[in-house]
Design goal:
Elements (H helix, E strand, L loop, with lengths): L5 H8 L13 H16 L7 H8 L8 H10 L28 H9 L25 H21 L5 H17 L7 H21 L3 H18 L2 H17 L3 H11 L8 H17 L3 H15 L16 H19 L3 H13 L5 H18 L2 H15 L5 H13 L7 H15 L1
């Protein structure tokens, strides 16, 4: 039997809960802090859960990975891994077997039969799905929230194409909880809101990857969950994303309708949610050519933004900071600026977005940078546009986003009249390479 890791448990219980003064830190709170520390300091996405912390404390896992160990040492104020009770598992060679000088492939082929002679995907065809709990508990709901947060963060940083299969599998598993597991009445709303949060993350990844039908289905699922939970805040976020997808797909009228539906009871929404929806409304109005209505709505969005209190916002709204607001409203003004040849205000906002986006939001920074370069190429100095575009192309190279790739194509086309300039020719070449990659 494994020995309990009392050092780790004691170190956790010595730390005060960040949410409940006077109480020891819970396993889930420790997991959340570890995930946040790894993302902030190491630039990687982690998915530590309360269940895994429990395995560490029970001694079922004695040597977590280096990222987890570094974060736990920092958060629990430990000098060494040993101070937290961690130790490397002892390696024992199989009795009577020596692998020195043995052809490893031949050895594995002998040990596993024909496993290595068939396609690797065939090995997974009969993998069992994870067992569902008979009764949904608070920990199950918190794990869904954590998974949704991790995937949403990944989407912002790397784009939606790389891990769609993983988020889809998690979403199917979570929906199965709604259908097959018994949920206490007191947890009903929380469960539906958590699954809706995950559904939105999956939907936006699909949108970014141009899997538009998948995105629409997932957004509808998320909206149904928000309605079932009576969660006006999640409802606003989902309908905002549905509107953005409709506008992107060339249907600003539907986008405007969705935004107006989300704003019907704006008194129930936070300032950030109102600013987000008004920015989407401005985008739709700009696409419809309603110049003055666009400017008025941008002003209303700015006013709502000044009232934001970040601590009062839901987890899925934490991204909506000054840089995001500047980018969203700058995108709305982009269309007006191209038509009127008056780029100053749109350029100012897009430049503020590029300067303000943290590394975790590299996709947003890339898309705003591409739009700023396109606007400058169309209305200003081509050499300045090429310099801006070069930075945006580097950002875009770190992500997999069909939306960003299409914006790069637009910049490539806009640069055609100036392609004889050396800096512009170099930019167009780098865009072509980035899109092919």
């Amino acid at each position: 039997m494994p020995e309990p890791n009392d050092r780790l448990r004691h170190a956790r219980e010595q730390r005060e809960s960040p949410h409940v003064p006077g109480e020891p830190m819970s396993r889930q709170e420790l997991a959340d802090l570890v995930n946040a520390w790894i993302h902030e300091h190491l630039g990687r996405v982690a998915c530590l859960t309360a269940n895994y912390v429990g395995k560490l404390e029970r001694g079922l896992v004695s040597w977590p990975n280096s990222d987890y160990r570094a974060a736990l040492r920092h958060i629990l104020k430990a000098r060494t891994d040993g101070d937290l009770g961690f130790h490397r598992p002892r390696r024992q060679a199989p009795v009577g077997v020596s692998v020195s000088g043995v052809d490893r492939k031949a050895f594995l082929r002998t040990a596993l039969g024909t496993a290595l002679t068939i396609p690797l995907t065939n090995l997974l065809t009969s993998v069992e799905a994870a067992a569902l709990p008979a009764v949904v508990g608070e920990q199950d709901i918190q794990e869904i929230r954590t998974i949704a947060s991790v995937f949403a963060t990944w989407d912002h940083t790397y784009g939606g194409s790389l891990v769609r299969e993983a988020v889809n599998a998690q979403l199917r598993q979570s929906v199965a909880l709604l259908e097959k597991a018994r949920c206490p009445a007191r947890l009903h709303d929380d469960l539906y809101a958590a699954v809706g949060f995950l559904g939105h993350a999956a939907g936006f990844m699909a949108f970014d990857a141009y899997a538009h039908d998948d995105a629409r289905r997932m957004f509808r699922l998320a909206l149904a969950c928000a309605e079932e939970a009576g969660d006006w805040h999640l409802r606003a976020k989902v309908m905002s994303s549905m509107a953005r997808q409709a506008i992107w797909c060339g249907d600003p009228d539907t986008g405007l309708t969705l935004v107006e539906m989300a704003l019907v009871r704006s008194d129930k929404l936070t300032p950030a949610e109102r600013a987000m929806l008004l920015s989407a409304r401005a985008r739709a109005l700009a696409k419809l050519g309603r110049h003055q209505d666009t400017l008025t709505t941008v002003g209303l969005a700015d006013e709502a933004f000044t009232r934001i209190r970040p601590n009062e916002e839901a987890p899925w709204m934490r991204y909506y900071d000054a840089a995001q607001h500047a980018g969203d409203t700058g995108h709305a003004l982009f269309d007006l600026s191209i038509r009127s040849r008056s780029p100053d205000e749109a350029a100012r906002r897009l430049a503020a977005a590029v300067a303000g986006h943290a590394p975790a939001y590299v996709r947003s920074r890339a898309i705003s940078g591409i739009k700023l370069a396109t606007l400058t190429m169309a209305t200003g100095d081509p050499d300045e546009a090429a310099a801006i575009g070069a930075h945006a192309v580097r950002d875009a190279g770190a992500i997999r986003s069909r939306r960003a790739a299409d914006d790069l194509r637009e910049l490539h086309r806009t640069a055609v009249p100036h392609q004889r300039r050396g800096s512009v020719a170099e930019l167009r070449h780098s865009i072509k390479e980035a899109i092919q990659a």
